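Technical note accompanying the year-one report. For the benefit of new consortium partners, we illustrate the data format agreed upon in the data management plan: each record pairs a sequence with a structure-token string. No post-processing was applied to the example shown here.
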Amino acid sequence: MEEILAYVKPAIAILPISKSNAEIAATAIDGTGFSRCCFLVAVGTVATDAGMSCSVTESATNGGDYTAKTNAVALAAIGTSGAGKLYAMDVGINPDKPHMKLYGTCGTAAILHSAVALLYRGKAPDPNLDTVLSQYVRKYS
């Protein structure tokens, strides 16, 4: 029986938050040893006139200067019709700049959002390492 967490390492990219008229509050993701990252952006309630843009930035070091990712992907502006939806951005990881962070802005009204990064291909994550998971339970049938 295969286990997805033997191949994918999850990490929090944006803690759930409601923001307006500000940059999104993203967390740095260390992609060292992995070849790809899929950012899953969840959008909850979207107030009238709210919106959000989102793209991937990269840096050689954690806390360094994050610049727009080469061959970047970006979400089109998410407006009120984007409420209650899940968006995905899948990018290759530059081994010279493996530290990534989402960058974007929220519109003038509040938008509830969060994001998880799924690191994959490359080294297999150690299931005993700390991850975004509060608990990991396995059951074999």
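Partners are asked to follow this layout when depositing records. The chain has one domain: 13-122.
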